[in-house]
Specification:
Blueprint: H1 3-8, E1 16-18, H2 25-30, E2 39-44, E3 59-65, E4 73-77, H3 86-97, E5 102-107, H4 117-129, E6 134-137, H5 147-160, E7 163-167, E8 184-189, E9 197-199, E10 207-210, E11 214-217, E12 223-226, H6 229-246, H7 252-261, E13 266-268
Parallel strand pairs: 1-13, 2-5, 2-6, 3-5, 6-7, 7-8, 8-10
Antiparallel strand pairs: 3-4, 9-10, 11-12
Helix pairs in contact: 3-6, 4-5, 6-7
Length: 272
Amino acid sequence: MTLADWSAAFTDLAEVVGLPLPEPVREWAWGGSTGAGVRVAVVDSGVDAGHPLVGGVDGCIAFEPDAQAADGVRAVAGRHEDLVGHGTACAAIIRSIAPDASIHSVRVLGANARGTGARLLAGIRWSVAAGMDVVNLSLSSRSDAWFAPLHAAADAARSAGSVLVCAANNLPGPTYPAEFASVISVAARPGADPWDLAANPHPPVDFAGCGVDVEVAWAGGGRIVATGNSFAAPRVAGMAALVRAKHPGLDPAQVKAVLHAAAVNAVPEGLA
Protein backbone atom coordinates (compact mmCIF):
# COMPACT_ATOMS: atom_id res chain seq x y z
CA MET A 1 0.00 0.00 0.00
CA THR A 2 1.16 3.56 -0.71
CA LEU A 3 0.45 6.78 1.14
CA ALA A 4 -2.27 7.54 -1.41
CA ASP A 5 -3.78 4.06 -0.97
CA TRP A 6 -3.97 4.41 2.80
CA SER A 7 -5.40 7.93 2.55
CA ALA A 8 -8.07 6.73 0.14
CA ALA A 9 -9.22 4.21 2.72
CA PHE A 10 -10.34 7.14 4.87
CA THR A 11 -12.00 9.25 2.18
CA ASP A 12 -15.53 7.93 2.59
CA LEU A 13 -15.60 7.08 6.26
CA ALA A 14 -17.70 4.10 7.21
CA GLU A 15 -18.96 4.01 10.77
CA VAL A 16 -17.12 1.80 13.25
CA VAL A 17 -18.41 0.49 16.56
CA GLY A 18 -16.63 2.08 19.51
CA LEU A 19 -16.75 1.46 23.22
CA PRO A 20 -19.82 2.98 24.87
CA LEU A 21 -17.80 5.52 26.85
CA PRO A 22 -19.41 8.46 28.65
CA GLU A 23 -20.37 11.32 26.34
CA PRO A 24 -18.76 13.41 25.12
CA VAL A 25 -16.20 10.70 24.50
CA ARG A 26 -13.21 12.96 23.88
CA GLU A 27 -13.88 14.92 27.03
CA TRP A 28 -13.86 11.65 28.99
CA ALA A 29 -10.82 10.35 27.12
CA TRP A 30 -8.49 13.33 27.45
CA GLY A 31 -10.38 16.45 28.49
CA GLY A 32 -8.16 18.62 30.70
CA SER A 33 -5.11 16.44 30.10
CA THR A 34 -1.81 17.97 29.02
CA GLY A 35 0.25 14.78 29.00
CA ALA A 36 1.92 15.70 32.29
CA GLY A 37 3.70 12.75 33.87
CA VAL A 38 3.81 10.73 30.65
CA ARG A 39 7.14 9.81 29.05
CA VAL A 40 7.22 9.70 25.25
CA ALA A 41 10.12 8.28 23.24
CA VAL A 42 10.71 9.58 19.72
CA VAL A 43 12.62 6.79 17.96
CA ASP A 44 13.93 8.56 14.90
CA SER A 45 16.79 10.69 13.51
CA GLY A 46 17.30 12.58 16.77
CA VAL A 47 15.54 15.66 18.10
CA ASP A 48 16.71 19.27 18.02
CA ALA A 49 16.04 20.10 21.65
CA GLY A 50 16.54 23.80 21.01
CA HIS A 51 13.89 24.08 18.33
CA PRO A 52 11.21 26.49 19.57
CA LEU A 53 8.43 24.09 18.62
CA VAL A 54 10.00 21.20 20.53
CA GLY A 55 10.36 22.93 23.87
CA GLY A 56 13.27 20.81 25.08
CA VAL A 57 13.81 17.11 25.68
CA ASP A 58 14.29 15.25 28.93
CA GLY A 59 16.63 12.52 27.75
CA CYS A 60 18.70 11.43 24.76
CA ILE A 61 20.33 8.23 23.61
CA ALA A 62 21.72 7.27 20.21
CA PHE A 63 22.25 3.80 18.78
CA GLU A 64 25.22 3.66 16.44
CA PRO A 65 26.66 0.87 14.27
CA ASP A 66 29.39 -1.11 16.00
CA ALA A 67 30.92 -4.07 14.21
CA GLN A 68 32.55 -5.22 17.46
CA ALA A 69 29.27 -5.51 19.37
CA ALA A 70 27.38 -8.80 19.45
CA ASP A 71 24.25 -7.19 18.01
CA GLY A 72 26.15 -4.73 15.81
CA VAL A 73 24.97 -1.71 17.82
CA ARG A 74 26.33 0.46 20.60
CA ALA A 75 24.41 2.91 22.78
CA VAL A 76 25.70 6.46 23.23
CA ALA A 77 23.94 8.38 25.99
CA GLY A 78 23.81 12.17 26.09
CA ARG A 79 22.60 15.12 24.06
CA HIS A 80 22.76 14.76 20.30
CA GLU A 81 21.64 16.62 17.19
CA ASP A 82 18.94 15.69 14.71
CA LEU A 83 20.84 14.40 11.70
CA VAL A 84 17.91 14.96 9.32
CA GLY A 85 15.04 16.98 10.80
CA HIS A 86 12.52 14.15 10.76
CA GLY A 87 12.69 13.40 14.48
CA THR A 88 12.37 17.09 15.32
CA ALA A 89 9.20 17.26 13.24
CA CYS A 90 7.70 14.32 15.12
CA ALA A 91 8.69 15.66 18.55
CA ALA A 92 7.19 19.08 17.81
CA ILE A 93 3.91 17.52 16.68
CA ILE A 94 3.71 15.50 19.90
CA ARG A 95 4.45 18.66 21.90
CA SER A 96 1.63 20.50 20.11
CA ILE A 97 -0.86 17.84 21.21
CA ALA A 98 0.54 16.95 24.64
CA PRO A 99 2.45 20.08 25.76
CA ASP A 100 3.50 18.77 29.17
CA ALA A 101 4.63 15.29 28.13
CA SER A 102 8.25 14.36 28.82
CA ILE A 103 9.94 13.80 25.45
CA HIS A 104 12.98 11.56 25.03
CA SER A 105 15.03 11.34 21.84
CA VAL A 106 16.11 7.86 20.76
CA ARG A 107 18.25 8.24 17.64
CA VAL A 108 18.42 5.19 15.36
CA LEU A 109 18.72 6.84 11.93
CA GLY A 110 21.81 8.27 10.25
CA ALA A 111 22.40 11.44 8.26
CA ASN A 112 20.87 9.83 5.18
CA ALA A 113 17.65 9.14 7.11
CA ARG A 114 18.41 5.44 6.92
CA GLY A 115 19.07 2.92 9.64
CA THR A 116 19.21 -0.81 10.23
CA GLY A 117 16.84 -3.32 11.73
CA ALA A 118 19.31 -3.83 14.56
CA ARG A 119 19.27 -0.15 15.49
CA LEU A 120 15.47 0.05 15.27
CA LEU A 121 15.15 -3.03 17.48
CA ALA A 122 17.63 -1.62 19.97
CA GLY A 123 15.72 1.66 20.11
CA ILE A 124 12.42 -0.08 20.80
CA ARG A 125 13.92 -2.37 23.43
CA TRP A 126 15.60 0.54 25.19
CA SER A 127 12.38 2.57 25.20
CA VAL A 128 10.45 -0.30 26.78
CA ALA A 129 13.18 -1.07 29.34
CA ALA A 130 13.31 2.64 30.25
CA GLY A 131 9.59 2.59 31.01
CA MET A 132 8.42 4.88 28.22
CA ASP A 133 4.63 5.20 28.30
CA VAL A 134 4.33 5.98 24.58
CA VAL A 135 6.83 5.26 21.80
CA ASN A 136 6.53 7.06 18.46
CA LEU A 137 7.91 5.13 15.50
CA SER A 138 7.64 7.16 12.31
CA LEU A 139 9.86 4.60 10.63
CA SER A 140 9.85 0.86 10.00
CA SER A 141 11.71 -2.05 8.43
CA ARG A 142 10.79 -3.71 5.13
CA SER A 143 13.11 -6.65 5.74
CA ASP A 144 11.42 -9.99 6.41
CA ALA A 145 14.52 -10.94 8.40
CA TRP A 146 13.37 -8.50 11.08
CA PHE A 147 9.75 -9.67 11.17
CA ALA A 148 10.21 -12.08 14.09
CA PRO A 149 12.53 -9.93 16.26
CA LEU A 150 10.35 -6.84 15.84
CA HIS A 151 7.19 -8.86 16.43
CA ALA A 152 8.63 -10.14 19.70
CA ALA A 153 9.68 -6.61 20.68
CA ALA A 154 6.21 -5.22 19.93
CA ASP A 155 4.57 -7.95 22.01
CA ALA A 156 7.03 -7.32 24.84
CA ALA A 157 6.21 -3.60 24.71
CA ARG A 158 2.53 -4.28 25.03
CA SER A 159 3.11 -6.64 27.97
CA ALA A 160 5.34 -4.07 29.66
CA GLY A 161 2.77 -1.30 29.25
CA SER A 162 4.43 0.77 26.51
CA VAL A 163 2.11 2.00 23.74
CA LEU A 164 3.85 1.72 20.35
CA VAL A 165 2.48 4.15 17.74
CA CYS A 166 3.80 3.31 14.27
CA ALA A 167 3.50 5.09 10.93
CA ALA A 168 2.37 2.92 8.02
CA ASN A 169 4.82 2.68 5.15
CA ASN A 170 4.60 5.36 2.45
CA LEU A 171 5.80 2.88 -0.19
CA PRO A 172 4.23 -0.36 -1.45
CA GLY A 173 4.67 -3.47 0.66
CA PRO A 174 4.40 -4.46 4.32
CA THR A 175 6.72 -3.00 6.95
CA TYR A 176 7.36 -3.85 10.56
CA PRO A 177 6.30 -3.23 13.28
CA ALA A 178 3.45 -1.21 11.70
CA GLU A 179 1.77 -4.42 10.47
CA PHE A 180 1.43 -5.92 13.94
CA ALA A 181 -1.85 -5.90 15.86
CA SER A 182 -0.01 -5.15 19.11
CA VAL A 183 0.81 -1.61 17.94
CA ILE A 184 -1.26 1.43 16.96
CA SER A 185 -0.65 1.95 13.24
CA VAL A 186 -1.34 5.28 11.57
CA ALA A 187 -1.70 6.69 8.04
CA ALA A 188 -2.10 10.26 6.83
CA ARG A 189 -5.12 11.86 5.27
CA PRO A 190 -5.81 15.39 4.02
CA GLY A 191 -7.16 18.02 6.37
CA ALA A 192 -6.02 20.89 8.54
CA ASP A 193 -7.52 19.77 11.86
CA PRO A 194 -4.67 18.55 14.10
CA TRP A 195 -7.22 16.67 16.21
CA ASP A 196 -8.60 14.71 13.28
CA LEU A 197 -8.65 11.02 14.18
CA ALA A 198 -10.37 8.48 11.93
CA ALA A 199 -10.63 4.75 12.62
CA ASN A 200 -10.14 2.29 9.78
CA PRO A 201 -12.82 -0.41 9.56
CA HIS A 202 -10.36 -2.47 7.50
CA PRO A 203 -6.94 -2.68 9.24
CA PRO A 204 -3.95 -3.42 9.39
CA VAL A 205 -3.71 0.38 9.58
CA ASP A 206 -5.78 1.38 12.60
CA PHE A 207 -6.12 5.16 12.32
CA ALA A 208 -5.57 8.15 10.06
CA GLY A 209 -4.70 11.67 11.07
CA CYS A 210 -3.65 14.99 9.61
CA GLY A 211 -0.47 14.46 7.59
CA VAL A 212 -0.88 15.81 4.04
CA ASP A 213 0.76 19.14 3.15
CA VAL A 214 1.33 20.06 6.79
CA GLU A 215 3.84 22.54 8.17
CA VAL A 216 6.29 20.79 10.47
CA ALA A 217 9.39 21.72 12.46
CA TRP A 218 12.73 20.80 10.88
CA ALA A 219 16.43 20.85 11.61
CA GLY A 220 18.19 24.16 12.15
CA GLY A 221 15.20 25.74 13.86
CA GLY A 222 13.24 25.92 10.61
CA ARG A 223 9.98 24.60 9.24
CA ILE A 224 8.96 22.86 6.04
CA VAL A 225 5.71 21.74 4.42
CA ALA A 226 5.65 17.97 4.11
CA THR A 227 3.41 14.98 3.50
CA GLY A 228 3.71 11.56 5.04
CA ASN A 229 2.33 8.98 7.40
CA SER A 230 5.33 9.96 9.54
CA PHE A 231 3.60 13.19 10.49
CA ALA A 232 0.21 11.64 11.24
CA ALA A 233 1.63 9.09 13.69
CA PRO A 234 2.94 11.61 16.26
CA ARG A 235 -0.46 13.29 16.40
CA VAL A 236 -1.93 9.97 17.51
CA ALA A 237 1.05 9.43 19.83
CA GLY A 238 0.24 12.78 21.41
CA MET A 239 -3.39 11.76 21.88
CA ALA A 240 -2.26 8.48 23.42
CA ALA A 241 -0.10 10.48 25.84
CA LEU A 242 -3.14 12.56 26.84
CA VAL A 243 -5.17 9.40 27.49
CA ARG A 244 -2.37 7.81 29.51
CA ALA A 245 -1.97 10.95 31.62
CA LYS A 246 -5.68 11.11 32.44
CA HIS A 247 -6.18 7.35 32.81
CA PRO A 248 -2.82 5.95 33.97
CA GLY A 249 -4.32 2.56 34.79
CA LEU A 250 -5.15 1.73 31.18
CA ASP A 251 -2.97 -0.81 29.38
CA PRO A 252 -1.91 -0.40 25.71
CA ALA A 253 -4.86 -2.38 24.36
CA GLN A 254 -7.27 -0.26 26.38
CA VAL A 255 -5.61 2.98 25.20
CA LYS A 256 -6.08 1.79 21.62
CA ALA A 257 -9.75 1.04 22.31
CA VAL A 258 -10.28 4.51 23.83
CA LEU A 259 -8.73 6.17 20.78
CA HIS A 260 -10.97 4.03 18.59
CA ALA A 261 -14.02 5.24 20.50
CA ALA A 262 -12.83 8.84 20.14
CA ALA A 263 -12.51 8.61 16.35
CA VAL A 264 -14.67 10.93 14.26
CA ASN A 265 -16.46 7.97 12.64
CA ALA A 266 -17.03 5.95 15.83
CA VAL A 267 -20.56 5.16 16.95
CA PRO A 268 -21.24 3.70 20.41
CA GLU A 269 -22.20 0.03 20.47
CA GLY A 270 -25.92 -0.39 20.00
CA LEU A 271 -26.29 2.75 17.89
CA ALA A 272 -24.40 1.58 14.78
